[in-house]
Design brief:
CATH class: Alpha Beta
Keywords: Hydrolase
Strand content: 15-25%
Strand order of the largest sheet: 1-3-2-4-5-6-7
Number of helices: 10
Distance between the termini: 31 Å
Order of helices and strands: EEHEHEHEHHHHEHEHH
Number of domains: 1
Shape: globular
Radius of gyration: 17 Å
GO molecular function, one term: hydrolase activity
Protein name: Alpha/beta hydrolase
CATH superfamily: Alpha/Beta hydrolase fold, catalytic domain
Structural class: alpha/beta
């Protein structure tokens, strides 16, 4: 497992997971604001960027690897864990499986309802269009969809070239077929669920369901935001949101 982390390991640990198609660099503006008060750990999800040679298997598989990492490095308990998109799905899987692994969890734009026909549509489509990810024009369209800031595009494009066809298919299938485990209702974590006001209906439905299932949770609908908009485009607002949540839920 490839991770990046800030220097002061004596501070409370926050693990942040990037979204699909991105990497730890998408979290840099957030890390810079949090590192004075927290030890920030940002794993690179398999199949992405520097971990491009490591085949992504599934959300469940990576979640269990991260649990093992937390057990080994932090005696099974951290201050907070957060994620965006597929990173958020990994977070939901972790707190579903281990109800006391973290004090706080931030779940931003997590899809928890499987998309019908995902396997039939995705496998042939991604095999056919795999070559498109090497085209700058296509990457620019994808970057816009993913809310990648313009100053991060070159890094996004360079690292998108490293993903393998197998990882791309597995990431897409795992994301679209993910089904939430209802055991998440037993989590002891205080959970902040975030969704953009302009996101797809199924994403809003997913966020509402998470909020309903988790007793000690809050739902924040980010005004005028699309998928991942608040953390990627407005990191200052994101940091203020989560730090205020930590203070309020002490």
């Amino acid at each position: 497992m490839i991770i990046k982390e800030t220097e002061n390991k004596e501070l409370p640990t926050i693990i942040l997971l990037h979204g699909g198609g991105l990497s730890w660099w998408s979290l840099k503006p957030i890390i810079e604001q949090l590192k004075m008060n927290f030890h920030v750990v940002t794993p690179i999800i398999e199949g992405h960027g520097e971990a491009g040679k490591d085949t992504f298997v599934s959300i469940e598989n990576y979640a269990h690897k991260l649990i093992e990492f937390i057990d080994k490095q932090y005696n099974g308990k951290i201050f907070a864990i957060g994620g965006l998109s597929i990173g958020a799905q990994i977070v939901t899987e972790i707190i579903s499986f281990r109800n006391d692994i973290t004090e706080y969890a931030i779940i931003e734009s997590a899809l928890i309802y499987p998309i019908k026909g995902m396997t039939f549509i995705t496998v042939p489509t991604y095999k056919l269009f795999y070559g498109l990810i090497k085209k700058r024009w296509f990457s620019k369209l994808q970057a816009k969809t993913l809310c990648v800031p313009k100053n991060m595009f070159e890094q996004y494009y360079d690292e998108s070239l490293k993903i393998t066809k197998e990882s791309l298919i597995n990431i897409t299938l795992s994301n679209g077929n993910y089904c939430l485990n209802d055991s998440i209702c037993h989590t002891k974590a205080k959970v902040l669920v975030i969704v953009g006001e302009k996101e797809l209906r199924i994403m809003k439905k997913s966020s509402l369901r998470l909020h309903e299932l988790i007793a000690d949770s809050e739902l924040y609908i980010a005004p005028h935001m699309g998928h991942g908009g608040i953390s990627l485009l407005y990191p200052e607002k994101y940091v203020a949101l989560i730090t205020n949540f930590f203070k309020k839920k002490k």
